[in-house]
Specification:
10 helices, alpha/beta, 317 residues, six-stranded mixed β-sheet
Length: 317
């Protein structure tokens, strides 16, 4: 179990107002426990894919690195085309940058299982199902170093999850037209992860209203509103779209259109910003809603990718 916390009491590690030193980070790390199996829930599904002739005819699964915390236990895989066609645009799908966001990982896998074949003639598709396998197993936003991978996409990143991914993507030597980064916003953002962040940094973070429903985050540098709308409209067929709060915001950010907010992804060192694509969206599923279940959340992630890809196909790239 992770340390319990709430907005009205101090986080149980550290001294309020004082950033963590190494011993507080170690205390936090020692409180983390494996709660599910990366081998059973991720790697076994990739192994199953490798047994399907329909898949292996067109795609390969490759290990592009392993986490230094336990290299044998945490290999990281990419799904890539067997044949790269330079006349086709390329698309990147990333899941599990935040390991605790389950449907991001499972949605990337489900897309590989059931939908990637529908788009292989239109795109070169690269899928990274689980960027942060330690975070997946321990249901964590951070890595063991108390670093948030999704704020660490910059040169010489201190997060191994990020440095391995960026090095691998760079080695492909291709330009991506689109990038789908699959995430969730959960109740634990307020009950655990934002309080932990405030404690680690010795600052105060206001709690935000957790949106009840799906939304996505575009890039303020290239928002592509029609693309974002296509993603929302596709997901709408699967699950409900998050309404804005009383201030016309989602998670404290003004909405640009129904279910869409924008961040400067490069400025914030987010995963969605490093790939450089024209069409970028970060999906945000809300798995704690009474209106959804695990399967619905996975389907919503797949629908987001499908909606975006269909939009690009229909406008001719």
């Amino acid at each position: 179990m992770q340390p319990n916390s709430s907005a009205d009491k101090p986080y149980p590690i550290g001294t309020p107002g004082e950033p963590w030193e190494e011993h507080e980070k170690l205390t936090w790390l020692n409180a983390q426990k494996v709660q599910r199996s990366y081998q059973d829930e991720v790697l076994a599904k990739l192994d199953d894919l490798k047994q399907e002739s329909k898949f292996t005819k067109h795609f390969s699964t490759v290990v592009y690195g392993a986490l230094p915390y336990d290299e044998e236990h945490y290999p990281i895989f990419a799904i890539i085309p067997k044949v790269w066609n330079k006349t086709k645009p390329s698309v990147l799908v990333t899941g599990g940058v935040h390991g605790y966001e389950t449907s991001g990982v499972q949605g990337a896998i489900r897309f590989a299982q059931h939908k990637v074949h529908d788009y292989k003639s239109d795109f070169n598709i690269v899928i990274i199902p689980c960027v942060s396998p330690w975070g997946y197993e321990t249901i964590n936003r951070w890595n063991p170093l108390a670093i948030d991978p999704n704020r660490s996409f910059y040169e010489d990143s201190p997060a191994p999850e990020v440095s391995l991914l960026m090095k691998y993507v760079s080695s492909l030597n291709i330009e991506f037209l689109a990038h789908f980064d699959l995430h969730e916003t959960t109740d634990t953002d307020n009950s655990e992860f934002r309080p932990a962040l405030a404690a680690r940094d010795g600052v105060f973070h206001e709690q935000w209203d957790i949106p009840d429903g799906f939304y996505c985050v575009g890039d303020s540098a290239k928002p592509e509103p029609e693309f974002q709308k296509a993603v929302i409209d596709s997901v709408r067929e699967i699950t409900h779209i998050a309404p804005h709060d009383g201030e016309n915001k989602l998670i404290g950010v003004p909405i640009e259109q129904e279910g869409v907010i924008n961040y400067d992804k490069r400025e914030l060192n987010l995963c969605g910003g490093f790939s450089g694509g024209k069409y970028i969206t970060t999906t945000e599923v809300y798995p704690d809603s009474e209106k959804v279940d695990d399967e619905n959340c996975i389907q919503a992630q797949v629908a987001a990718i499908v909606g975006g890809l269909d939009f690009i196909v229909n406008i001719g790239g």
